[in-house]
Design goal:
Length: 122
Amino acid sequence: MSRAIAWAVLIILSKQFLNLNLKMDKEKKYYYLKLNPPRATFPQDISPDEAKIMAEHSAYWKVLLEKRICLVYGPVFDPKGFFGIGIIAIDNEEQLSSIINNDPAGKLGKYEFYPMRAIFPS
């Protein structure tokens, strides 16, 4: 991940937590998820079927956000290639597998995920 993207994610997270008055939960495990697109030209050449799946994907992540499982998610407009990210707070690795396996966009792209240390405002 480039430094610019990492800093952008941290800034967004800080703003989210300041707005939501959330505190760090030391019992949670935090992960950075990256959804890689099915091809380099995606989403410029998205098909109607893929657009439907991506709408379902967005609705799926919105529910995770509302449940405070997802802290922030969205597309990244990297000049080298478009991809999506999500930062999640979970109780265990089974929950991580469930989130990835139940995402409709898993039919299109491939997930990468990395544990992370989440740092929040005091």
